[in-house]
Amino acid sequence: MNKFDLAIIGGGPVGLFATQFAQLHNLNTITFEALNRFGGQVEWLFPNKEIKDIPSYESLSGKDLIKKLKTPLTNTLQPNYRVETIKKEDGYFFINDEYQAKTILITTGLGAFHPKTLPIKVTKTEEKFINYFMTDPTNYKNQKVAVLGGGDTALDWALQLAPMVNSLTLIHRRPQFRGLESSLNQLKCLSNVKISTPYLPKGLQIKDNLLELTLNKIGSNEQSKQSFDNIFVAYGFKSDNRILRNWGLELSGRGIQVDRTMATNIPGIYAIGDSVEYEGRVPMIALGFGEAQIAITNIIAKLFPDKKITLHSTSI
Ligand SMILES: Cc1cc2nc3c(=O)[nH]c(=O)nc-3n(C[C@H](O)[C@H](O)[C@H](O)COP(=O)(O)OP(=O)(O)OC[C@H]3O[C@@H](n4cnc5c(N)ncnc54)[C@H](O)[C@@H]3O)c2cc1C
Q: Which residues form the FAD/NAD(P)-binding domain (predicted)?
């Protein structure tokens, strides 16, 4: 059985940075990611968004951030691997009865997440026109598309698609949007963008190789039909963190309870990033990076009590 100093569970931005920081301090680590690509919410929900709050970068796209985090990693990365069970025996944690690690760092974020789907029965053929994740906007060049939803994800996707597509209709069930007002104002200035509110999709069918949506106007009997090459559904995501209770972790609200060293109630298990909750915490990437440094430094001190930890070459 493979043995490691540290097993990192979750390969989002925070898990990736924790891997890099642990590698820098010579820890033998393995990082598990349930999905087939690393990067967590950044990779799956907003790869093309320009992120403006990562220190020392004026702006960088989600996919560039994940690439930069992954590039220096030489420690073991295990994609497509969902951690289900953790047991402790003889000073080691057993992960899915397959891997052994002296300590564990949980970076599972919001847990396994799935998109909220259209509340309409959809056939396999119709499914091909419906997108729940944003990939490369250039794939939709010159198309007629619709984005459904009223939050930041819907507005971000619309802003990414608009420069590529022929026309874009933003459909929301309320006249007001929950997303950033500045994003909405940007969209309103674009000549190929139409905003349709308050409309709710009630049915769909394929007609002339396009997806025809039937839209009901909320509060009236008015119905309209519109056809698209592709539609993007941004109704949010359902996340499932139930597994944390099975691992015996104490929760605080929806997240794991940690102390100031990022230790959980189980000795040897630490948690950081969006998986934890404490007063004043905000779900931001850079904060998770700082938590990674706290957790890894404390893990090294516990694993190697005689080792002098050099955080940087010169101290004042
Ligand atoms: C639309 C949107 C825009 C955002 N914009 C910004 C922004 O501009 N700036 C900013 O700082 N933050 C932003 N955020 C927040 C940011 O994305 C999160 O704070 C960040 O992704 C948290 O990182 P994480 O690694 O803790 O968790 P996640 O990114 O949630 O990653 C957790 C990973 O763990 C994996 N996992 C879960 N359970 C298991 C398991 N049992 N076994 C193995 N793997 C598992 C998941 O598959 C996932 O890949 C935004 C969020 C959204 C939704």
A: 4-280
User: Do 221 and 288 reside in the same domain of the chain?
Assistant: no
How many A from CA of 112 to the centre of ligand 1?
10
Residues 135 and 201 in one domain: yes
The answer to whether position 96 is within a domain reads yes
- Report the binding-site residues: 33, 41, 46, 83, 113, 274, 314
Q: Which domain holds residue 215?
A: 117-235
Please indicate, yes or no, if residue 310 is contained in any of the structural domains. Answer: no
In a domain? residue 309: no
Q: How many domains does the chain have?
A: 2
Residue 103, strand partner residues: 6
ipTM of the complex: 0.99
**Are 99 and 22 within one domain?**
yes
Atom number, ligand 1, closest to the C-alpha of residue 40: 49
Whether residue 95 sits in one domain with residue 151 = no
pLDDT in tens, the chain (316 residues): 689 999 999 999 999 999 999 999 999 999 999 988 999 999 988 888 889 999 999 999 999 999 999 999 999 999 999 999 999 999 999 999 999 999 999 999 988 778 899 999 999 999 999 999 887 899 999 999 999 999 988 998 999 999 999 999 999 999 999 988 989 999 999 999 999 999 999 999 999 999 999 999 999 999 999 999 999 999 988 877 788 989 999 999 889 999 999 999 999 999 999 999 999 999 999 999 999 999 999 999 999 988 777 776 666 6
Nearest to 132 by CA among 148, 110, 156: 148
Which residues form ligand 1's pocket by a CB distance below 6 Å?
9-15, 32-35, 40-42, 45-46, 51, 53, 82-83, 107-112, 152-153, 243, 273-275, 283-286, 288
